[in-house]
Design brief:
10 helices; 7 strands
Length: 301
């Protein structure tokens, strides 16, 4: 997303990732470093991923079937709790996060797992930092067994509007790329469909957080491993930080809090299987969340 030292402008990722190429938008090495630095104190800044995991748990509770082999993709500190009796493999792009729960280190678009290894893949808080997101989603679908389930969540388009506005004010003459590209909910649904998922659904939930000052927001972003990892990032000099902080503070309420918004995009998709109902012809987004999650009430009770 962003960080005290660097930020980037918000754009729809579909404007950047073409059908046939996946440019290196993000610096993979910088991402590993930022995640390793965040790991020791992550528990103090995990509220955003905790919200994502709660949403994923609600969606998983609506599925009336058992899962035996699960991949926790982007595991952070291993907070995702699998259903009783299930085996879980953990994977993270950062070594420290991967090592803590005994997982493997790998990027989401370079998965080391064999096809059809899992019947459930869960990913919370990382897919917005992947260079080849269409490729990552395709790999997720491939490591799923037929009729396997993918549940994902990440920070989407429309997030951090207060920070974005403050940066525009601070750098009105020469704006620089300061916030990561962001994916809107409609594009997310399209990406699921392109990756070959059946019954794909994308929906969004909003989280509002009040901050006393810009430093607190920067601290959370650094602490959750959401610092700027753009391949072509520029340093944020102290004078710009000061102007940004002043603009951020000017948007505060009568309690001295500036409200920041996080738009959390949730993804649901099934690995294709002949037993599945066929979606409506016009686009995947016509499928309801209840239908996508609850269809096993009749077929897999």
């Amino acid at each position: 997303m962003s960080e005290a030292s660097d930020h980037g402008t918000s754009e729809d990722v579909s404007d950047i990732v073409s059908e046939n190429s996946a440019p290196e938008i993000f610096d993979r090495a910088a991402r590993r470093v930022r995640r390793n630095r965040a790991a020791p104190g992550y528990a103090e800044h995990d509220f955003l991923r905790a919200t994502m995991l709660d949403g994923i748990a609600e969606r998983l509770d609506a599925v009336t079937r058992d899962f035996t082999d699960i991949l926790d993709l982007g595991c952070f500190d291993g907070a995702f709790t699998p259903p009783p009796g299930a085996r879980v493999a953990r994977c993270d792009a950062g070594f420290a996060f991967a090592a803590k729960p005994g997982g493997v280190q790998a990027d989401e678009d370079r998965l080391p797992f064999a096809d059809a290894s899992f019947d459930l893949v869960v990913s919370a808080g990382v897919l917005d930092q992947v260079n080849d997101l269409p490729g990552a989603l395709t790999l997720i679908r491939r490591v799923l067994r037929p009729d396997g389930l993918f549940l994902g969540a990440f920070v989407g388009a429309g997030s951090l509007p207060a920070l974005r506005s403050a940066l525009r004010s601070a750098e009105s003459e020469r704006p620089a790329a300061r916030l990561h590209p962001q994916i809107d909910v409609r594009s997310a649904g399209d990406l699921l469909m392109r990756a070959g998922f059946a019954l794909p659904v994308a929906d969004v939930e909003t989280l509002d957080v009040g901050y006393r000052d810009l430093g607190r927001l920067f601290g959370d972003l650094r602490g959750m491993g959401a610092g700027n990892i753009l391949a072509e990032r520029q340093p944020l000099v102290s004078a710009t930080v000061g102007r940004t902080a002043a603009a951020f503070a000017s948007a505060s309420d009568d309690r001295g809090r500036t409200h920041e918004t996080f738009q959390i995009v949730f993804l649901t998709g099934w690995s294709p299987d002949p037993s599945q109902p066929k979606p409506a012809r016009r686009g995947s987004a016509t499928a309801s969340l209840g239908a996508a999650l609850g269809r096993h009430d009749q077929s897999d009770a």
